[in-house]
Design brief:
The structure is a homodimer of 246-residue chains. The first copy, chain A, has 246 residues and is α+β, with helices and mostly antiparallel strands. Helices cover 22% and strands 31% of the residues of chain A. Chain A has two domains: 94 residues, Pseudouridine synthase I, catalytic domain, N-terminal subdomain (Alpha-Beta Plaits); 138 residues, Alpha-Beta Plaits, CATH 3.30.70. In chain A, strands 1, 2, 3, 4, 5, 6, 7, 8, 9 and 10 form a ten-stranded mixed beta sheet that branches. The two termini of chain A are 24 Å apart. At the A-B interface, strand 4 of A face strand 4 of B.
Chain lengths: 246, 246
Amino acid sequence: MERIKLVVQYNGKDFSGWQLQPEKRTVQGVLEEKLKFLVGEEIRLYASGRTDAGVSAMAQVAHFDTEKKVNPNSLKNSLNGLLPSDVAVLLAEKVDESFDARFSVKKKTYQYRFYVSRHTLPLFVENATRINDYADVSLMNDACKYFIGKHDFSSFVASKSGKTDFVRTIFDAKIITLENGLYAFEITGDGFLYNMVRIIFGTLVQVGYKKIKPEQVKDIIETKCRQKAGKTMPANALILKCVEYV
Amino acid sequence: MERIKLVVQYNGKDFSGWQLQPEKRTVQGVLEEKLKFLVGEEIRLYASGRTDAGVSAMAQVAHFDTEKKVNPNSLKNSLNGLLPSDVAVLLAEKVDESFDARFSVKKKTYQYRFYVSRHTLPLFVENATRINDYADVSLMNDACKYFIGKHDFSSFVASKSGKTDFVRTIFDAKIITLENGLYAFEITGDGFLYNMVRIIFGTLVQVGYKKIKPEQVKDIIETKCRQKAGKTMPANALILKCVEYV
């Protein structure tokens, strides 16, 4: 048996997320279909984690096992020849069986893109969220530091169903300028709960609008109460930037 | 009479360029229609210059004259309420009659976006051009300096019809990194000929592919022969970044 690791980029706009769902167009579904055709057997892909409908990935990581002999680089090129233009394989390589795309993850980085404007901006509208021009971005950046560290993120999860452990470690969180007028909130952690990044960013927006002081983020974390945090921001501005294994 | 200056952003994808054309959807056409409705008289817009079909603008500048009394800021907000999501007014202000959006231009900056990859990349495909992964971007950057200065750009113009003066001054030309894997060729000059930026970039691509040495750009300029330069690159990756008047 051989284990192959894939690094995959996709534009989430026309996908119902990563995970396979009947009757829906998903990234996993599209990739597994082409892999089956090329490898010649049913392939099951395991990703670092699912991404929701509309969320994009600069470099998602997944693995699969196969009994067939495959040349990873040829497979990559053949896949890219067959895949639609909104998904591409950046890398394919053989890995040891101890590598697991989901369970070996050490760090994940998400990027949430936004711009500050009274009006919708044509060049940013597709992949970034607009926040009003009275928002103070430097206050939002100040608030980022309160998310860093090991915390119970119960206040920042959409639904607790099925989960019992809400403790995650955030290694870094900051706001960066991508280009004139376009910003990104970047957050790196050992893992993220359902909708966590979008709810954290919704809370930062409240800080930007001066409805919450930066230091109040500490209290919101401590209350473990979803209602204290901001709203879940739209999916189209969220990108899984990278997944690290060492 | 009052003269109003507008700064306009648009995504060129679904426009047949800036300039009014019968039966075509153009930026000028869409703006003049909404201005007529709001100001209450026929409005003629004069831009810093036309942009071709598919070309976007971060900040195009235009002016119009009106006999009516208008409050520029209210006009801006009303326009943005009426305009489709692919065009927006960033600024509207009263200017002196000596200001002319076209003839007062001192500098224009264009950005041509590209990525270097063997395959189409889903997150860059819409607004950037792919060039093959054997391209040497540092050679392309080396070649940029030969465009700087006052030159006859006859080798870099699509069609000479109607024009007799092909001399333009380029103040700056360079390749910058926008984000991981995404680059932009940025060029600032006192004006640009028809398709000039797209042909210059096509020539830089030949340098990247080692079909032309960087220093040969000098010769290509001197020959004044369109056939010596590279091909015209696609419009969707070109953005008019800014127009300067001082």
